[in-house]
């Protein structure tokens, strides 16, 4: 169905438009994220200007909710694209909202903090899943370049992150927190401009469904309506909602109402998914939908461990790591930049290792890569255990542990994250393509929430226990998936077999 596309370096030019748009968007996202927690716990007398003066616990709580919401909103963001605007316009809307959000954060007033975060959450929800689906849309079914395309796109993501984490610490040290937030805003405006300029190269992707497809389409309203026609599904959803409300009501504090609301939302999503499953035409589609949902469990585990980067590991870096190098103190955000730097260095290497395995007909399915990636990332926490040991003995720990931990995290991420994006675009039913991508990001967001909770628990159990727990859990979970690989792969009905070079 795709028209002939202009190419550059063997990929459609549209890929590079999306690459640079996403690069600037991620610059703003990761730049802001790298100072968020330390801004919240900074005192009024902080050297970078007054922070919010929150306790670490409060900061971890907000961080957890923030990272979760940023990605959870991808579900409505995906639905908006599938059903109303199409992906391309939804991305545009997201870019505008993000520019406003980061701009507002640059304002040095109390109201601005939560307002800015609100805009950013909705903006990312509109932009992130849909721009990713559009990358998939550049390639025909079965085109072997699709995985590579996502790897290239992933380099753009991390180039943005690397640039941001390299500069934002310096900007904050010189001009204060709000200049840092402002820099993120400027980056997002650049992203918006790139996207507007590049529209001519992406005319054929991310458009609203044609009228013809629309006729056979079922609206979200109809899907919910169908729930009321099916007592079993209605029953399951009602029970889930009642449990959620009870949970929120019987616990005290805003946090618990937050959980109550989250579980009600997830119950509605489960209701919707059951109806979509029922609505899918063929057994193949149903199976693929199922295996995709199952793979999202692995995604939650992966990001639950990985997202320690912006929380627990960020504070560990700030407070317990000896950051002096040649007489200079390395700013904390730069350590988060290590992840991005390693990605840029290693993305092609990791992609080639897997490609070689595939050529030799060895196991290299997406699910296998995702499971292996989770194990490798989990093993990275062994170095954090060693760091804690050294801190306990000497009162500070060397930065080599963080460097090694981030190296393993990165190799794990490269085996898992770009692969999952591509996997979603291969398996999702066309009319729910954006929604499924939204669900994928929502799973990463739930992982982010898990990471926040682990951070909160570190006050009670200590970092040593948390890091050890992460190693044990991720390795066991990854091994279970590998053990179940055969039946899981059967559910994909060969979606990844016979991929060929296409132009
Ligand atoms: N680092 C990746 C990105 O920003 C993955 C984020 C995620 O999937 N939660 O795109």
Task: Describe the 3D structure.
The chain has 19 helices and 4 strands. It is mostly helical and 503 residues long. A hairpin with a 2-residue loop joins strand 3 and strand 4 (328-329). Bound molecules: glutamine. Glutamine is lined by residues 26, 71, 157, 303, 417, 441, 444. Its main location: membrane.
Features:
single chain; 503 residues; mainly alpha; two-stranded antiparallel sheet; 4 strands; 78% helix; binds glutamine
In whole angstroms, how far apart are the ends?
13 Å
The overall strand count is 4
What is the CA-atom radius of gyration, in angstroms? 22 Å
Name the overall outline.
globular
Sheet with the most strands, sense and barrel status: 2 strands, antiparallel
- Which distinct ligands sit in these coordinates? glutamine
Give the overall pLDDT as a whole number.
Answer: 88
């Amino acid at each position: 169905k795709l028209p002939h596309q202009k190419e550059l370096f063997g990929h459609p030019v549209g890929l590079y438009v999306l690459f640079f748009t996403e690069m600037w968007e991620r610059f703003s996202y990761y730049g802001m994220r790298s100072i968020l927690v330390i801004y919240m716990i900074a005192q009024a007398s902080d050297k970078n200007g007054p922070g919010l003066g929150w306790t670490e616990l409060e900061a971890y709580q907000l961080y957890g909710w923030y990272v979760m919401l940023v990605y959870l909103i991808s579900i409505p963001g995906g639905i908006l694209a599938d059903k109303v605007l199409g992906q391309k316009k939804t991305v545009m809307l997201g870019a505008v909202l993000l520019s406003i959000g980061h701009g507002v954060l640059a304002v040095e007033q109390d109201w601005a903090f939560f307002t800015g975060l609100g805009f950013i959450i909705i903006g990312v929800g509109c932009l992130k899943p849909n721009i990713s689906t559009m990358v998939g849309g550049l390639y025909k079914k079965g085109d072997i370049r699709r995985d590579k395309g996502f790897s290239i796109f992933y380099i753009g993501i991390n180039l943005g992150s690397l640039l941001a984490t390299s500069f934002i610490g310096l900007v904050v040290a010189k001009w204060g927190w709000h200049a840092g937030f402002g820099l993120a805003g400027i980056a997002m405006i650049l992203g918006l401009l790139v996207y507007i300029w590049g529209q001519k190269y992406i005319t054929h992707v991310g458009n609203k469904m044609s009228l013809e497809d629309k006729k056979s389409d079922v609206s979200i309203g109809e899907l919910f309506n169908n729930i009321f026609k099916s007592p079993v599904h209605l029953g399951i959803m009602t029970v889930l909602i009642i449990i959620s409300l009870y949970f929120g009501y019987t616990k005290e504090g805003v946090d618990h109402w937050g959980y109550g609301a989250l579980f009600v939302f997830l119950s509605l999503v489960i209701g919707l998914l059951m109806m979509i499953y029922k609505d899918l035409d063929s057994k193949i589609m149903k199976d693929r939908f199922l295996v995709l949902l199952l793979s999202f469990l692995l995604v939650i585990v992966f990001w639950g461990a990985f997202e320690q980067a912006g929380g627990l590991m960020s504070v560990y870096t700030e407070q317990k790591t000896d950051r002096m190098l040649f007489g200079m103190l390395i700013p904390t955000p730069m350590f988060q930049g290590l992840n991005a730097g390693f990605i840029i260095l290693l993305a092609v290497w990791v992609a080639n290792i897997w490609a070689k395995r595939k050529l030799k007909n060895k196991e290299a399915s997406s699910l296998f890569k995702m499971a292996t990636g989770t194990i490798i990332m989990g093993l990275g926490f062994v170095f954090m255990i060693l760091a804690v040991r050294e801190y306990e003995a000497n009162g500070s720990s060397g930065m080599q542990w963080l460097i090694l931990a981030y190296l393993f995290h990165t190799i794990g991420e490269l085996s898992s994250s770009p692969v999952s994006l591509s996997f979603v675009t291969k398996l999702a039913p066309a009319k729910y393509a954006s929604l499924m991508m939204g669900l994928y990001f929502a799973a990463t967001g739930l992982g982010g929430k898990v990471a926040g909770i682990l951070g909160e628990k570190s006050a009670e159990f200590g970092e040593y226990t948390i890091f050890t727990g992460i190693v044990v859990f991720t390795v066991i979970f990854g091994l279970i998936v590998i053990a179940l690989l055969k039946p899981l792969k059967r559910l994909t009905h060969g979606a990844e077999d016979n991929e060929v070079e296409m132009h």
